[in-house]
Amino acid sequence: MTQRTLSENSTTNNVCKFSFSELCAEELRITYSTLASPFPIMVIENIPILPLSSKSQARQFISLIDALYESHCKLICLAEIFSFRIPYRILSERKLSM
Fold it and tell me: What pTM did the predictor assign?
């Protein structure tokens, strides 16, 4: 897997925007924590439905979410589809309302 750098294609003072493939398709030269720290808000667009064969991308996405959480960075996700298959128990535990 080749390492690569990111281009901050859409940034303002408070918000950065990346596509899912920019962040999770390949290994990055920058850590997710370093990426999240200067921005209080991150937008990730074009999040695909990940089949079981995409374990690497799923792990990278989870690592990204963890790093954003640790950096107190707010996240806006623009996904291919919203799954209503999230177990109700998880939703109720997190006190999310639909």
Answer: 0.70
Q: What are the structure tokens assigned to 48, written together? A: 């695909």
* Residue-wise pLDDT tens digits, 21-56: 889 877 777 888 888 888 899 999 988 887 888 888
- As a whole number of angstroms, the distance between CA 92 and CA 76 comes to 21
CA distance 11 to 34: 15
Secondary structure in 3-state letters for the chain: CCCECCCCCEECCCEEEEEHHHHHCCCECCCHHHHHCCCCEEEEEEECCCCHHHHHHHHHHHHHHHHHHHCCCEEEEEECCCCCCCCHHHHHHCCCCC
* Cα(12)–Cα(30) distance, integer angstroms: 19
